[in-house]
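Task: sequence in, structure out. Protein: EPS15 factor.
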Amino acid sequence: FLPQVDSTNAGRVLASDAAVFLKKSGLTDLVLGKIWDLADTDGKGILNKQEFFVALRLVACAQNGLDVSLNSLSLPVPPPRFTDTGSPLLLSGTASSDLPWAVKPEDKAKYDAIFDSLNPVNGLLSGDKVKPVLLNSKLPVDILGRVWELSDIDRDGMLDREEFAVAMFLVYCALEKEPVPMSLPAALVPPSKRKPLSVPGAMPLIPSSASTKESHQSLPPVGILAAKPPLTQ
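Result:
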């Protein structure tokens, strides 16, 4: 990666060059800011080769749902992924599609049993059926809202069997005190959803918000858990 950002071959990377490059990781500015602060140890706004590698390693940690901290540097993670578009979920290239799914088969069987017990309709669970299961975890409502957003991969306000497994996986991670990532790591995207992932940002909410006029229960994805915690008690 270094030659792409060190155009003068000086063995160092300026903050402005690094910012443009690191943005391609699809991580939020908040996370990237934290990564820069940890890597730029002397606060000069320039990274030497070693510090740049620390930044790349922290990007990989963040993309795989690990905490952005120096403690995570010793953990085994796949190399960081960068893309030329602004979409955090863009999974082009072979690396991501060949990744094994993070949800293990034995865990998937458990999640499937819970899924079936919730009476899915046409293989889908609506938000109001998933909500009690998520709330049952006693996790903070903002964390559960993020779990919902990450697991509703096609943004249709419903979870299919694979998306539900992603939601359960993230809930169990959070219960183990692991941070819920800001964007879904490639390894967590179900293999069947990895190829043509070009979901335009606002589009899917249009049909689902039209149908919510009749039933307030099927709120659009973001609203389902973030809405008024006192009522959920």
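The first strand starts at residue 12 and ends at 14.
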